[in-house]
Design goal:
By secondary structure, the protein is mostly beta strands. It has two domains: about 30-130, Immunoglobulin-like (Sandwich), CATH 2.60.40; about 140-300, Jelly Rolls (Sandwich), CATH 2.60.120.200. Helix content is about 10%, strand content about 45%. It has helices at about 1-25, 260-265, and strands at about 30-35, 40, 60-65, 65-75, 75-80, 85-95, 105, 110-120, 125, 130, 140-145, 150-155, 165, 180-185, 190-195, 205-215, 215-225, 230-245, 245-255, 275-280, 290-300. Strands 11, 13, 14, 16, 19 and 21 form a six-stranded antiparallel β-sheet that branches. Strands 3, 4, 6, 7 and 8 form a five-stranded antiparallel β-sheet that branches. Strands 12-15-20-17-18 form a five-stranded antiparallel β-sheet, with helices on one face. It starts with a helix and ends with a strand.
């Protein structure tokens, strides 16, 4: 009796497994896409155009036939369930404020688009992905320290100057010049600001910046309420946007300044022009604090 029971169980198990195969067919073999990286191209690299091509596009936001497939940190290889000919679109993604947990397509970059032919089990490699700024991107301010003048300088509370240098090479990011500031133990404050004010709104706005520093760097935005004739009716002191951690190698950051702008606009004085500040405080009398900056872009 026991042997008959075992035989019946074995038959039932075989039937059940066979049923699973019938109702859960083998998944189709995917096609694969590989993307090494994304670079940015500009129509005019001068300070009166779109500035540097320097970028830090970390992620590819991938669409096939206008359907979002996913966001992938590059370099990346990922499966898709399409085959045959399709339209591939890619948006360049950034770490907002340099924070890995805060990833987003960069609002001012256009799509990269290409017709591709996918084959199941085969990797299709996408090379030379260059993305342009959108025509609607407004470059309010570009400072690359390459011209005869400059559009940023220290405030009257700064203990040290912001100097434009051409050497040593390690402190010049690209081109012929960058700007540096150094604080000694008896220097309490470095602060600089844009020479001009800019009529930003509450839409997406970013500051692009190449920098390196061995001390925290605070980026802030001040607000002005300005009458149509140019009279300043009210001033709101700098509102902190973010404090960047030290980074002793050149780094690129995309600073989202919109929250500070919105706060300055929604305040009672309703600011309509804005000025950018960079600041380092030496509260512990530390010696040899250094900052190097290049390629500031304020875009909305």
């Amino acid at each position: 009796m026991k042997s008959k029971f075992i035989i019946l169980i074995s038959i039932f198990t075989a039937v059940l497994l066979n049923s699973c195969n019938i109702y859960n067919p083998t998944e189709p073999i995917p096609s694969y896409i590989h993307i090494d990286g994304i670079s940015v191209s500009v129509t005019d690299p001068s300070a009166s155009g779109q500035g540097t091509t320097s970028s830090k596009i970390t992620d590819a936001w991938v669409y096939i036939d206008d359907q979002l497939v996913g966001c992938y940190e590059m370099p990346c290889t990922f499966p898709v369930l399409w085959d045959g000919t399709h339209t591939l679109k890619i948006r360049g993604g950034i770490k907002v404020n340099g924070i890995a947990a805060n990833r987003s397509p960069y609002a001012f970059l256009d799509f990269y688009s290409q017709t591709i032919s996918l084959q199941r089990g085969i990797i299709t490699t996408i090379t030379n992905v260059k993305i342009k700024y959108l025509p609607s991107a407004h470059f309010y301010w570009i400072e690359d320290f390459e011209g005869t003048g400059r559009t940023i300088d220290t405030t009257n509370v700064s203990n040290v100057a912001l100097n434009v240098i051409s050497s040593p090479a390690t402190n010049v990011f690209e081109g012929g010049h960058s700007a540096v500031a150094y604080l000694k133990s008896n220097d309490l404050m470095f602060e600089c600001r844009s020479n001009n004010r800019y009529p930003l709104t509450q839409g997406d706005a970013f500051l692009e910046l190449n920098y390196k520093c061995n001390h925290e760097l605070t980026i802030s935005m001040a607000g002005y309420t300005v009458a149509s004739g140019g009279t300043i009716l009210n001033y709101q002191p700098p509102q902190e946007v973010i404090t960047l951690n030290p980074n002793t190698n050149w780094n690129k950051v995309y600073v989202y300044v919109t929250p500070a702008i919105s706060q300055l606009i929604s305040a009672g004085a309703s600011a309509n022009q804005f000025q950018l500040y960079l600041m380092m405080q030496n509260l512990n009398a530390t010696d040899s604090i250094g900052l190097a900056i290049d390629n500031l872009k304020l875009i909305q």
